[in-house]
């Protein structure tokens, strides 16, 4: 079972407590609290214009994560209409353990074949957090609509990592393959 089938299962176990935001550069819908557990894109399935300009060298992403712990990963959809979870088939940031607070990735780079000036696509950030039952996970989704441009930002201190819960124990969650 891969993450996509896990995501479908998670629809049945969605939790209203599931939250994260993308303060930089921003996201499709910063108020999708009630639908953030719906794949893909936290329930918002249409491109929001204008798209965020994405530097071919990679642009920064700031995630503000509200759970005590979880695992986050970033996917990309570069072709098709990006309306199903399966469309987001390019992993662009490997799953990483995360505690509550700010997580700042200085340069998220798009896959080479889509990293061409004026190419458009959708970045999807997915978090898995422990659910109410042991071995259960709640998944959360937010998307960023992008267009590749030399005017896209590169890292210049737009965000920083928080140390708020740095000493908290992290749990290992097999976000990618729960086989
Ligand atoms: C954002 O998502 C919420 C549902 O959680 C919805 O009510 C609202 O209309 C959405 N906003 C936009 C701008 O799409
Ligand atoms: C998205 O693409 C799929 C597969 O080509 C198609 O079935 C679906 O109608 C498309 N949706 C929209 C909103 O264009
Ligand atoms: C990108 O799009 C802009 C605006 O449409 C256009 O002026 C420019 O020539 C395009 N650049 C490339 C490399 O396609
Ligand atoms: C935040 O932490 C991640 C993971 O350790 C690291 O890759 C990244 O460079 C850090 N961000 C900043 C702005 O230092």
From TrEMBL:
Domain Copper acquisition factor BIM1-like residues, every copy: 17-164
Which cell locations does it reside in? Cell membrane
One matching Pfam family = BIM1-like_dom
CC terms in the record's Gene Ontology section: plasma membrane; side of membrane
Endpoints of the signal sequence: 1-18
Ordered alphabetically, the record's keywords are:
Cell membrane, Glycoprotein, GPI-anchor, Lipoprotein, Membrane, Signal
- Supply the InterPro entries for this chain: BIM1-like, BIM1-like_dom
> Does this entry carry the keyword Nucleotide-binding?
no
Topology versus the membrane, per the UniProt entry? Lipid-anchor; GPI-anchor
Its protein name is: Copper acquisition factor BIM1-like domain-containing protein
Q: Which organism is it from?
A: Pichia membranifaciens NRRL Y-2026
């Amino acid at each position: 079972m891969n993450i996509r089938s896990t995501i479908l299962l998670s629809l049945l176990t969605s939790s209203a407590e599931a939250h994260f935001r993308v303060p930089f550069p921003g996201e499709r819908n910063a108020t999708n609290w009630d639908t953030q557990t719906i794949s893909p894109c936290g329930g918002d399935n249409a491109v929001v214009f204008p798209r965020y300009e994405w530097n071919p060298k990679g642009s920064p992403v700031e995630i503000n994560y509200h759970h005590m712990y979880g695992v986050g990963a970033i996917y990309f959809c570069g072709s098709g209409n990006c309306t199903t979870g399966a469309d987001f088939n390019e992993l662009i940031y490997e799953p990483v353990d995360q505690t509550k607070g700010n997580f700042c990735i200085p340069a998220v780079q798009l896959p080479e074949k889509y990293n061409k000036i004026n190419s458009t696509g959708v970045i999807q950030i997915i978090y898995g957090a422990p659910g109410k039952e042991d071995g259960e996970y709640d998944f959360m989704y937010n998307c960023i609509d992008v267009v590749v441009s030399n005017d896209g930002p590169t890292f210049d201190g737009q965000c920083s990592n928080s140390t708020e819960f740095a000493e908290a124990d992290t749990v290992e969650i097999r976000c990618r393959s729960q086989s």
